[in-house]
Specification:
The complex is a heterodimer of chains A (about 425) and B (about 950). Chain A has about 425 residues and is α+β, with helices and mostly antiparallel strands. In chain A, the strands form 5 sheets. In chain A, strands 11-13-9-8-23-21-16-19-18 form a 9-stranded mixed β-sheet, with no helix packed on it. Chain A has a 5-stranded antiparallel β-sheet with strand order 2-1-5-4-3. Chain A has a 4-stranded antiparallel β-sheet with strand order 14-15-20-17, with no helix packed on it. Chain A is globular and about 70 Å long. Chain A starts with 7 loop residues before the first strand and ends with a strand. Chain B is elongated, with a radius of gyration of 41 Å. Chain B has a 5-stranded antiparallel β-sheet. A 3-stranded antiparallel β-sheet of chain B has the order 4-7-8, with no helix packed on it. Chain B has a two-stranded antiparallel ribbon with strand order 9-10. Chain B is built from 40 helices and 10 strands. Chain B is of the alpha+beta class. In chain B, strand 1 and strand 2 form a beta hairpin. Classes of the chains: A alpha+beta (about 425), B alpha+beta (about 950). At the A-B interface, strand 2, helix 1, strand 4, helix 2 and helix 4 of A face helix 4, helix 6, helix 8, helix 10 and helix 12 of B. Chain B: Pfam families: Adaptin_N, AP3B1_C.
Amino acid sequence: MCFQQKMIHSLFLINCSGDIFLEKHWKSVVSQSVCDYFFEAQEKAIDVENVPPVISTPHHYLISIYRDKIFFVSVIQTEVPPLFVIEFLHRVADTFQDYFGECSETAIKDNVVIVYELLEEMLDNGFPLATESNILKELIKPPTILRSVVNSITGSSNVGDTLPTGQLSNIPWRRAGVKYTNNEAYFDVVEEIDAIIDKSGSTVFAEIQGVIDSCIKLSGMPDLSLSFMNPRLLDDVSFHPCIRFKRWESERVLSFIPPDGNFRLISYRVSSQNLVAIPVYVKHMISFKENSSSGRFDVTIGPKQNMGKTVEGVVMTVHMPKAVLNMNLTATQGSYTFDPVTKVLTWDVGKITPQKLPNLKGIVNLQSGAPKPEENPSLNIQFKIQQLAISGLKVNRLDMYGEKYKPFKGVKYITKAGKFQVRT
Amino acid sequence: MLSLLPVQKLLRQLPAGPAGRPKKTAGGDTAEEVTSPVHDDLKEMLDSNKDSLKLEAMKRIVAMIARGKNASDLFPAVVKNVACKNIEVKKLVYVYLVRYAEEQQDLALLSISTFQRGLKDPNQLIRASALRVLSSIRVPIIVPIMMLAIKEAASDMSPYVRKTAAHAIPKLYSLDSDQKDQLIEVIEKLLADKTTLVAGSVVMAFEEVCPERIDLIHKNYRKLCNLLIDVEEWGQVVIINMLTRYARTQFLSPNQNVSVGDAKDAKAEAASLAKRKPYVMDPDHRLLLRNTKPLLQSRNAAVVMAVAQLYFHLAPKAEVGVIAKALVRLLRSHRSVQYVVLQNVATMSIKRRGMFEPYLKSFYIRSTDPTQIKILKLEVLTNLANETNISTILREFQTYIRSMDKDFVAATIQAIGRCATNIGKVRDTCLNGLVQLLSNRDELVVAESVVVIKKLLQMQPAQHSEIIKHMAKLTDNIQVPMARASILWLIGEYCEHVPKIAPDVLRKMAKSFTNEEDIVKLQVINLAAKLYLTNSKQSKLLTQYVLNLAKYDQNYDIRDRARFIRQLIVPTEKSGALNKYAKKLFLAQKPAPILESSFKDRDHFQLGSLSHLLNTKAVGYQELPDWPDEAPDPSVRNVEVRGAPQGAHVHGRAKVGASSQEPESVSEESGSSSSSSSSSSGSEEEDEDEEEGSGEQSEDKEEEEEKRLKRKEKEGSQKAASGSTVSPTPILGVLGTPASSKGRREWVGSPHRSLGPSQLLSPAFGAVRTYELLHRMAGEGLSVEYCFSRRPFPGDPHMVAVQIQISNNTDAEVKSLRVSEPKPLSGMRIQEFPEIGMRLAPGDTVSVVMGIDFCDSTQAANFQLCTHTRHFYVSIQPPVGELMAPVFMSENEFKKEQGEWGTGTGTGRCMDTHYPSANAHPPFCPLCRPCRGPRAPRAAGRG
């Protein structure tokens, strides 16, 4: 007699030193020894980033993700779309983040009961049940300092004593009976520039990855519509389930009844290269001399196409070749560190002022006798520009229907470097 | 029962505790497990009266379970608290129970009655939670109880409880698969459910219990397609995957006429093409493609992937492209998501290269990518390479070769080799580049290059003796066995191109023979044999020497090979006929190796599946069937249309009359058979969709109809002019708006006086348009639609009957639906429908008829629609045509009327007298567009 058991069987949380600090089974119990296969793969991979997300073992399949120094390893017995499990595990990690402010081993260990209650609600027999944070928060209240004090005195609990209604409604993402004294709706338009700049300074690849994160604290059942000055920019968008797709298709307006609290409204991609302005340029000269144990390093960062805004929070990180022993540099601005173990050079520049361009210059000491490194390292740049969406996206207006009060509304723009890499 | 035994045995052996745990565990707590005083303490707390103590104890127990420690000896103490009033204690007890019930079956039975009580609770959430826990307890004795509970819950009023029932089905099935037949019945029932809440869960149950019963889907196919966008994300994935399989069995391949490209036998293909009817996509196939497309914009990567694979497997070639953008977007996500997506993109990019070409640059590699991602991106880039973009790709590859990540560099060299074999134009460029790499300082890079060069040289050896010479020199330095073996093979194979160097290489290798790796030794023997055959003068002794060394080698493969080769090449009296052919055997033309992607042909696994990722069939994988040659009967998906306002028959009238005259009967109907009303509203949706789908066709039809009508009109008018008709002719009163409203009233009133109700005609046209009165969103879940039923409103002939259909999409019951505060404009009157006293359960639909006298104006009638909690302002605005009624009158009567009215004002615009022609229907304008249809104005003046 054979029977199938689909979806997620068990979950193990494993920290970086290989301790299984939490396990949860939704069906019959699977022994921890199944994780040995995972440890084996982990050893083989050397780097945590390279542990294959799917591992096949004689009786099970292990699908894992790595988030915030924790491996979430799920045990699967039969065919299931791997992305289904991966996406769910990320949702679990997001929920922990949402509940405890961080998704760390200590936070999980400190709140192990809440974690267990959450996992119990999120999966039923291995199939996702309630994954919306609004529903979960109705079922299980997130811990706060005040509440834990009150609980310890009165013996009351974290479990909601009212039964949740959101799950039953048409709008499962919003909880019922929301009330605020100050009604606010904030939108953060965050754009990240992903770019690869080649040796000569020309752009090999650039695109903008944008998101609109919302923090909505509105009473009742508000029905919002958000319109843009230039909605045509958004041709590759993914939506929160609350958004009415048809309205977007026909009118290019985001119409939705929002979840309560923080959530990601949309994410979008602007990819046509001529639209992507690159706000900084980098001049670099990195060379290693043949038959000598030293090299030269000279990097200057300057602003470019930044729409008159200041580029700030500039940080450069470089993975130097293995042969580099030490670096002897002087920075005209900010400070630098070099870790001789990981060979990572970090230069914290700060704000760029066009009058005096920041420069980092000096000598690279190489292992004596080792051959000159073949490769030049690539420079990873981070920066921030406040009050600017580099794609030019602008929110036109926000209208609210369905409720009578006047909400306070706000939009904030910010541009950051995403995966911004300069090849040398 | 049988199925459980091994599991239990296993559990007994491994008491889930740290006992049998391997090396890597959080050590140090083993004491806790053994020391019983701790547990005594917990038992005491559990027995106490204070909830806070109980809670504390349960929390500690759950923490133990979480760390994988055994807490099973507390079972009796815990199970007592199953009926505890404190909700958190109760929940934690459930957690404990589900974890240990399997081990302590007898004790677990003590808790069952609590859940059975819960199943009868008036609160739907408590019913659901009781079912959930009950079904999670893996105790075989309670199978009958579970079966009963599931069956009951499957017909529960609350969709949430029904959803829980769907979840419980796979649980029971895994406990006792003998229940399959009964469970299939429940699944069949739940599949008919039309709420979005249930859809995902029941399809999941279907996939686990009876994925082979594809016939259960037929009737629900269109409904599932239409509900899809509103189902929660996880359910969407399951439904889409199931529908992909379904579509592969039920529809024809949309690419069958296009597949000439990979035809093996052109003639047969042509013949079969000729035989085949031109391909027309089944509207249901189109429906699926259309309804899944918006989901490409889901935030959930699993949903996007599911739609992508659906399009890849089901869509016509020309349409598959839409998924590329969405997949590329996923590449920005977490590493593990990237990994899975890239695997699938790699497979897709082989079959449909053009699709991803515009996104080539999105696959460019950053030095910060993890190696496994780099290698997958490289795979995709290589698949995408063609004559036009190869130069850009090669430039990228040049950067990659300088990377610090050596595994990645090796993969890049392989990729260059593949580009060179696939694209002849760049072969020389690639080869030169690779030769340059031979002087690289890193041995791995050199070795990899040698291996790839070897493969490339095989394609055109004659021109490259220089390279072979260069490589021969490398044997002094390079130590990687695979590379050494490759060089030796090359020299042996092409020894005629390098006659001077080859014997020298053999000499060197003979010297170091004993220290070589096995694969190198084998190649040395090969080289020796080939040289012996081509240049025996210089190499005879060397060959003998090598063969002698090999004769005493430790490895039997090498000894074997040496013996074999000696017999073959060295002529002795014993050696047979083969000796003559030795040269042919060794120096035969060898086909160049084909460098292929490892992702080739992986698409025979359903994309996005675990099996595809692992490239082996995973347990429980459902094969994706091939398209059928002949389409199965599409009518199996037709759903009986019930209750739709399609009164084409005369007796239809009686039915409506009954329902509008006695509103109680309406409520009775919808109350008694919620399933029937559900099916009807489901089918209505489908009707709409079909209309949309076949929009073009029906428009064409309409045009034709129009033409036909015009012809008839002409004929009719000619005949009318000739005045040859005597017999009473049914006509349709057709009149424009008379000039004076006063006069109009008199006139319009007259038919009602003169014509008995029997002379009023039923409309003969099919489609009645439905308008929206209250949108689901605006109505907070209550949606209201109306249509003009085009039937007389009983009681008041001046009123237009408006059929109103109210659906409750909320999760709560809606009570006392009524109309209030009508605010008619002057002269307008509204006959409200009687308050619907009955409760409208979630998901139910009710239809009522109300009458409005619009006073022949097209002004809107405004009123409020009230429920027990809310008021909604709504308005109904009639199109002109809906204000007319079909009447019967003889031609003479018509002429009389016309004479009285038409001449006076000249507004008798279009008159039509057509005969009860071949058409068996009551003669009435076949058009549904009201303004074109010749009809008499219905409503008349008052009094």
